[in-house]
């Protein structure tokens, strides 16, 4: 039986080249001496693939990475009947009618903790836009900008991720504090 996949293609002529450098430079996994724009785009696809692998093998809810080649990334499709699972942003104000927000928040924090502790990654762009609700479970997506926990900017990105998460869920009546969430994850 054919298995649906998601194909992500980084277009070399339109990619936001200038935004990539802060997430990729300082990452000891990649040799960036004398790299062309096209090579950087290919490297970005490889980086997302490797980040997905680290997260997936660490038990984080992310799309299962399948393969990457140059600027193309193939991964598990999250959805039903060729309809992609919605992001939390797309669900919007209807979220409390779809799922228990407290449970969902706790599950996202559990995944962020696995990402941080086991995969040793910080998402670096975590928000309601990059969390899908698939079969009532949260899945983290868009892992290209994720950095290792020892990256020079990891702490700043991590705090921003948590601030975005707390801001979004507090709109639904949760009374979360960034400091409490941070303590739960790093302890």
> Architecture, according to CATH?
Orthogonal Bundle
Biggest sheet statistics: 3 strands, antiparallel
Structural classification: alpha+beta
Number of strands: 9
Calculate the terminal CA-CA distance, rounded to whole Å: 44 Å
- Compressed to H and E, one letter per element, the order equals EHHEEEEHHHEEEEHH
Given as residue ranges, the uncertain stretches (5+ residues, pLDDT < 50) are none
Task: Estimate the global geometry from the Cα principal axes.
Answer: globular
Strand content: 15-25%
Whole-number count of domains? 1
Task: Please give the count of helices.
Answer: 7
Share in helix: 40-55%
> What is the spatial order of strands in the main beta sheet?
1-3-2
Please name the fourth-level CATH homologous superfamily.
Transferase(Phosphotransferase) domain 1
CATH topology: Transferase(Phosphotransferase), domain 1
Task: Write down the overall mean pLDDT.
Answer: 92
Indicate the radius of gyration in whole angstroms.
17 Å
CATH class: Mainly Alpha
């Amino acid at each position: 039986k054919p298995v649906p996949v998601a194909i992500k293609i980084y277009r070399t002529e339109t990619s936001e080249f200038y935004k990539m450098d802060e997430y990729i430079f300082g990452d000891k996994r990649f040799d960036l001496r004398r790299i062309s724009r096209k090579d950087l785009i290919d490297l970005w696809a490889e980086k997302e693939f490797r980040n997905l692998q680290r997260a997936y093998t660490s038990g984080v809810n992310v799309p299962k990475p399948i393969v990457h080649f140059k600027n193309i990334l193939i991964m598990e499709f999250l959805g039903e009947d060729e309809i992609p699972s919605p992001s939390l942003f797309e669900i919007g104000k209807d979220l409390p009618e779809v799922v228990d927000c407290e449970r969902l928040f706790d599950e996202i924090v559990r995944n962020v903790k696995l990402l941080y502790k086991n995969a040793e990654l910080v998402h670096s762009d975590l928000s309601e836009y990059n969390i899908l609700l698939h079969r009532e479970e949260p899945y983290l997506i868009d892992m290209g900008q994720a950095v290792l926990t020892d990256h020079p900017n990891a702490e700043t990105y991590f705090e921003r991720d948590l601030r975005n998460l707390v801001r979004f869920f507090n709109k639904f009546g949760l009374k979360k504090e960034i400091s409490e969430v941070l303590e739960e994850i790093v302890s």
